[in-house]
Amino acid sequence: MFIIAVVLANLVWAIPLLMAESLLGSRSRRGTIGAFREFMGRKFAWMGGFMAVVTVGILFYYTVICGWSIRYFVYAVSGKFSSGVGKTQTQNLWDNFVGNPAQTITFHVIAACLVGFVVLRGLKGGLEKVLNVTVPMLFAVLVLLAIRAMTLSGAGDGLRYLFVPDWSRMLDGEMWLGAFVQMAFSTGAGWGLYLTYSVYMRKKEDFALNSGIVVAGNHLASLLAGIAVICTVFAVQSPHFAEEAVSAGDQGLMFVYLAALFGQIPGGTWFFGPLFFLVLVLAGLSSLIAMMELAVRNVIDLGLNRKKAVVAIVLVTLAGGIPSALDLDVLSNQDNVWGVGLLISGLFAAIAMMRFGLERARQTLDLASDFRVGAWWKALIALFPLMFAVVFGWFMYLSVTDPSQTWYDPFQTFSIGTMVLQWTALFVVMLLLNNLFSRRLSRAAHTAHGDAPADGGGTAVPTHQGEEG
Amino acid sequence: MDVETVIWTLILFGGTVVAVVWLSYIAWRKEQETTGGGERTAE
Questions:
Q1: In whole angstroms, what is the distance from residue A376 CA to residue A11 CA?
Q2: In Å, how far from its chain's centre is CA A268?
Q3: Mind telling me which residue stretches traverse the membrane in this protein (chain A) (predicted)?
Q4: A468 to each of A202, A304, A332, A338, A446, how far by Cα in Å?
Q5: A44 against A400, higher pLDDT
Q6: Position A9 pLDDT exceeds 80
Q7: CA–CA separation, A350 vs A167, rounded Å?
Q8: Band of pLDDT at residue A448, cut at 50, 70 and 90
Q9: pLDDT over 90 at A330, yes or no
Q10: A245 and A252 Cβ atoms separated by less than 8 Å
Q11: Cα distance between residue A119 and residue A293, in whole Å
């Protein structure tokens, strides 16, 4: 049922939202803060700030997770997951690793510096070169791992678990919120990443086609990863172990249960194990590069050059990730708060489209598109507030009526209270910074271009390929 | 593997593969037209 929910979320939320984000970026030629100022007016630059900070909030703990992947890749290459290694050993390995701050912080620092190095080189010199290698490699390795998993005896149970819908979960609000968050997380819809990339794209890019490819390609990669992981777990272990493994959450599944299985698969210790963790590292780095570029783009818009902006963002990431590197509860809390926060960011992008004029936005998108961007796009964007209210409201209702949860406690890892508290704090800070944002954006644009009218109605035009400063 | 699993795998996984291949083909064709046939503008 979850996959069907994700497909639906992709169609009704991710595709129209990515198209909206591309229009925001390509037309304003600014990062999230500047784009919202252009589309919504000077008083609403804070909305772009909110979107940026939600993504930076994810960047903080995601760097920590990427650090784990790098550590586990090193473990795998050094033969740590051999045939005699079972779940008890991998659990101990995991507990010792995450319980050792020196290790988690060291690998967090390595991941942040690697990403900073790539972003420092700009889009053409760094990001494009890295993604040209990592994305095809990622797909090739995922296909290989999925084929290996599907050819294991008993893999059919895994496919059944993955693909056959359990219709009894149709009205499960938590499942629907999970599907929307998963969709937002994996496609990048609502992060502002696509907005940032669009700053560097041609204005007449076919954004409808690009959005379709991003969403479909991402969904395929997710399914391949799901097949590789779930089929292996179901094929190698008893159904009871498999159920336990898939219930253990992403961290437990990847770093404890799956790690314990590589020794039991032919070629697992020296080939498929290292390959799997290499995929995790590549996927993590690709995402982190985009997130850091988003933050850097905004700082450049506010007047710093690329070098200073990258150094500042790397330092902030190093500091901001430390609480998550030290405590898994903090990491889970941040994952929950900012993961759901992406839906608010998506809602903001939809509001920006409404302010700009849905028909005007549709016509602009349709102009360069092979596909007809018709009334369906306007209808879906207009429905964003309703979709958000239904999905989040449903989740709130279930949480509030669940006697086993203290939903209002702001100090609980997954409570509504903690989400609302952190979002509110962010709203207030961004509102207070709004005038500063607007002033800095105006000053930076004036410094960069003098009084000459810039492309896109008086906005600054960053050098393509990110070679500014 | 039972029939139900095969059918749903084909629908959900096969459908995604078809979508990716189809969209990639359109993008590739568009790229070819742009580079081979000079500037292409939208209608």
A1: 11
A2: 29
A3: 6-24, 44-70, 105-123, 135-155, 175-195, 207-235, 255-288, 309-326, 338-358, 379-399, 411-433
A4: 17, 10, 37, 30, 15
A5: A44
A6: yes
A7: 31
A8: low
A9: yes
A10: yes
A11: 6
**Residue environment code for A14-34, b if the CB has 16+ CB neighbours within 10 A, otherwise e:** bbbbbbbbbbbbbbbbbbbbb
Residue A1's Cα: distance from chain center in Å? 22
- Determine which of A2, A11, A164 to mutate to test the interface with B (most B C-beta atoms within 10 Å): A164
Q: Does B35 touch chain A (CB under 8 A)?
A: no
Measured between beta carbons, the chain B residues lying within 8 angstroms of A162 are: 9
Q: Is the dihedral of CA A55, A56, A61, A63 positive or negative?
A: positive
Count how many domains chain A has.
Answer: 1
Could you tell me if residue A422 is inside a domain? yes
A50: domain range? 1-445
Per-residue tokens: A168: 């009894």
Are the C-beta atoms of A232 and A397 separated by less than 8 Å? Answer: no
Q: Is residue A342 part of a domain?
A: yes
Using CA atoms, how far apart are residues A277 and A282, in angstroms rounded to an integer?
Answer: 9
Whether this model's ipTM surpasses 0.85 comes out as no
Residues of B in contact with A156 (CB under 8 A): 1-2, 5
- The number of beta carbons lying within 10 Å of the beta carbon of residue A307 is 11
Whether A456 is in a domain gets the answer no
CA distance A3 to A260: 26
CA distance A451 to A63: 41
Q: Is A454 part of any domain? A: no
The tally of CA atoms less than 13 A away on the side-chain side of residue A245 is 29
DSSP A186: H
Q: Which residues touch A235 (CB under 8 Å, ≥6 apart)? A: A149, A152, A153, A154, A155, A157, A158
Distance CA A296, CA A465 (A): 14
Higher pLDDT among residues A269 and A382, named by residue? A382
Q: Residue A426 maps to which CATH number?
A: 1.10.4160
Asked if A59 contacts A317 with a C-beta cutoff of 8 angstroms, the reply is yes
Q: How confident is the model at residue A296 (pLDDT cuts 50, 70, 90)?
A: very high
Which chain A residue has its CA at the smallest distance from B9's CA? Answer: A163
